[in-house]
Amino acid sequence: MAIERDTKIKFHEHGTLKSVTRWIQTHDEGIAEWLKNSRRAYQRDRSDVADEHRAAVLLLADAHDDQPARIALLDVGGATLEDVERWSTWQDPEASSRGSTLDEEETQGNGGKAYMYSRFKGPTQILGVRGGRLNRKGMEGDRGSLVRGTPGFIPNVSHGRDLEISSWEAELCEALTSYDCRLDELPSEVEKAIRARQAFTIVEGVDPVNVYKGKLDVEDLIHKLLRHDQSTLAVQQLRLYAVHNGRWLNQGKPLELDPIPPHPGFEQPVVHEIPEQLPDDNGRTQSTTLDDTRPRGRVILHTSRDNMPRKHKELRSRWKVSYRAGENMVGSKKVSELVPNTPGNQFVYATVELSALEPDYVALGRVRPNDGPLLEAVDTFVADCIRELAKQIHEHQRHEMDEQQLDEVQQENRKLDDFKNRFLPDTSNVGGEGPNDGNGGGNGSPPPPPPPPGGDFAELLEVAWPEDQVLRIGRGVKIRLAPLVRPRAVNSAGRTVAKLTFEWTSNDRHVIEFTGTDAAIACGKGRTTISIAIAGTSIRSREIPVEVWNVDHVLLTPRSLDIPLGKRKQIVAEVTNDEGLRATNVLLKWMHDADDPLIVRINPAGWVTGNRKGRTNVTAGAGDPVADGVWARIPAAVRVVENRDEIQRGSGFPQLLLTGRDSDPETGKIRDGDPEQPALWQEVSDFQNNVWWLNLENPAAYFHFSNFQERAELWRSFHAQKVVEMVQQVHMQTEFTQRDTDERRDFWASHKAAMERIEVQLAQMMWEQLRVYVLTGSGID
Predict the structure, then answer these.
(1) Among residues 414, 456, 444, 419, which one has the least CA distance to residue 434?
(2) Is 0.70 surpassed by the pTM of this model?
(3) CA nearest 352: which of 413, 304, 296?
(4) H helices of 247-372, where?
(5) Mean pLDDT, rounded, for 372-379
(6) What is the mean pLDDT of residues 357-374?
(7) Which of 473, 310, 430 is nearest to 737 (CA)?
(8) Contact 170, 63 (CB under 8 A)
(9) pLDDT at 575
């Protein structure tokens, strides 16, 4: 195509200037850019500063005596004429490298200038002294104006450009005066370096914006600066000191990030080599080495002893995945963005080192990587790595709970669960069999209930499993049978006798084996029978026939379904065994792939309850899904959607159950605790089953439980408090759901959600300090 081009490319000067400077919004961002530039200037292809001389000083001064506040950075590099000339050019891709072949962190020629242009109302400057010559260049003018963005020599070319000077010391002392600091007061290594090199650079800004009454919030500024991505490498490779109004911070020692103590049992970093080929979100293969032109990358996972997002000031800003390309910082993302709602992810942070991310994935400011197919593929791999480690930490936390203590707490919880029924309103006792005096518990404790007709002695043990039906289970499946078989001890009047212990027996342990209570393992192909007895008696249930199948193939139908929140739908698993027989009533192991484990609740028969809005893929099978198991090749896509109908609470007295010990009535599995949920916990599916959970992995609950052995009274106080809270919430729930038809009947649900948000956000943070106070009586002054 024929074209007659303009003589040169044209940009709107002021518009371009705004676009390349607006990303600097805070002083910590700007100072981080200064630090990055100093670190780069120290390298051997630039100022070639010896390791023992690599230090810098952050100079801070509040407004005083009609003088505005100031911020500056002093380093020992010594900016030359070439340096200040290259500094003067906006958007220079070679401002840092200048043709160097070193594998070094690259700057984009904008960061430091953008800070000086946009975050100061007064003049800004770069002053360099080296080899007996001075160069001083800067900006002056209205903030945000085009004239300010045009640098110039200060005070003019003849006195600011490559000026021969007689004393570098006099120039430095004059510059330090504004910060109430002298040369001999500088840290010894900084003073020695400057004297040895007879060189220094000061970048400075006068009258910083967003500083209240000219007083710098130094503590907050230093805190944010040290945690900024762009500061990380600089703080690691040079010693950074800070002085404020002539007083040295951190007792005159270099500033440094507080170390993050690792999670117990996970002290060493976990390193994963990134594969050379990874699939992106569309299934296309991406090369992580740019077709062998770049080295392979790696993911380094670190752990934290403390829950990082809850430690708002200390750790929340460091709970991230940082991306590096060689020595270059590319940016970061929050861990929760890659693996949301994954138990244990609060204790993991990571670094991705991948040279192939540069230059395409390096955005202006290097705050966050650019999106693209390679990053999608890498993020998927990183997320899998974090999930694996988070799962290990979560399991480790659960195993730390002493089994004997859990048994004792479970027995105690059952007693308290019975006790609380005395104080519940009439509407809790829908079945009419529980204790109630008709006043809703509001006028004191009602009398204990009379003994059930027929006495407290069991005469018979019934099971709900149909007599003509075989219980089929896939080999390798572990399952709790009580929710399916539902054994019930009855007295002579046919009424239930509660709180009895059942013993489960298999007639062939090579087919079915019990590992305690009702937990069964389908060990091998074959037929047998199981039965249940009341512990300490000769009373036994009828025998239930059992078949264990070798599963050869699993087909799920439907392939996709929408489930309203709180509703239940079945996914049918058609199983073909190794003899070619087919059936749809074989009990399998079910799982889904969402990061949030509680989006859906699935029982062994494939009934799926929508518990939280979202999407997931559900699959079923037998055996280990990674090793030798047989699972459905095509999962069922499930979407939990809004439910326009009112969600109904289950009947009878509400139950208080214990995480890590009691079975979830919705799934038949032991309910895991979750540190991100309230201590007194109830999901939508729990509401429908009228159960509550004492969540032992909640920080407050875990703290009290861990002191159970030494100070049982401390635990009992907490346990009792949660029982009281449960009763109070049941009363509130009843009050708000029994309103007239023209009132909002869902008000209680909204109220409860707000209460739980407050507990998660506020109460858990409070417990970080309260646990010390409870043990020592101090820590909250």
Answers:
(1) 419
(2) no
(3) 296
(4) 335-338
(5) 94
(6) 83
(7) 430
(8) no
(9) 95
